[in-house]
Amino acid sequence: KQEVTQIPAALSVPEGENLVLNCSFTDSAIYNLQWFRQDPGKGLTSLLLIQSSQREQTSGRLNASLDKSSGRSTLYIAASQPGDSATYLCAVPSRAGTASKLTFGTGTRLQVTL
Amino acid sequence: GAVVSQHPSWVICKSGTSVKIECRSLDFQATTMFWYRQFPKQSLMLMATSNEGSKATYEQGVEKDKFLINHASLTLSTLTVTSAHPEDSSFYICSAPGPFRGYGYTFGSGTRLTVV
Predict the structure, then answer these.
(1) Does the beta-carbon distance from B34 to A49 stay under 8 Å?
(2) Could you say which DSSP state residue A82 is in?
(3) A60 contacts: CB under 8 Å, gap ≥ 6
(4) In chain B, what residues touch A106 (CB-CB under 8 Å)?
């Protein structure tokens, strides 16, 4: 059974800092990995999707890397801003195909202070 | 990008009544819709998977008769909480796989249900 863990559980940083969020999964036979953010009381917003054949993906100040062999993914946020404050979740599908259940990580709650 | 529109955003209902939550895929067809429940400060818990034109698949421990799911078209899936009780108060979110393989999953904005 796939288990996904995120470290740290919570993080508070001053504005402008670069930071790294970690996601670990026990079964390395994943097909892709997706990073989301969730604002309080809101749904999930997709940030980045990395296919199993890719090593990293970038979108603006966000960069996600994937190392399947070690069962790890990291989300790098450059020059953090207060608007980045949210809970960040990583998720992997249970199998290939477009309609597979997702296994979510435990989440990292980020607070960026002024 | 692909959008899943979820309504209502919040609803308050009395114990014993039923509440319907709708999720619509905009600009793409969602043959599958996942329904999640989320308690405060916890991660998402998958409740059921709906497939257009067939019966939903419920996760272990989820009452089929309490949480009725209908996926009557390729763009609409509904979750009806029947005979709601205060313990059903929660945040409900739907999600659909994107319009093509490799797109990932798109989530609705969620519905905050409060049963009084």
Answers:
(1) no
(2) G
(3) none
(4) 43
Note the residue count of chain A.
114
Q: Is the dihedral of CA B20, B110, B55, B2 positive or negative?
A: positive
Q: Which amino acid is at B115?
A: V
Q: Which residues contact B42 (CB under 8 A, 6 or more apart)?
A: none
- Cβ contacts below 8 Å, chain A against chain B, sum to 56
pLDDT in tens, A72-106: 999 999 999 999 999 999 999 887 666 788 999 99
CB B38 within 8 A of CB B45: yes
Q: How far apart are CA B9 and CA B14, in angstroms?
A: 17
Is the Cβ pair A107, B110 closer than 8 Å? no
User: β-pairing, B44-51 with B32-38?
Assistant: antiparallel
Both tokens of A3, joined, read 């288990």
Q: Report the C-alpha gap between B115 and B96 in whole angstroms.
A: 26
Overall average pLDDT of the B62-87 stretch: 95
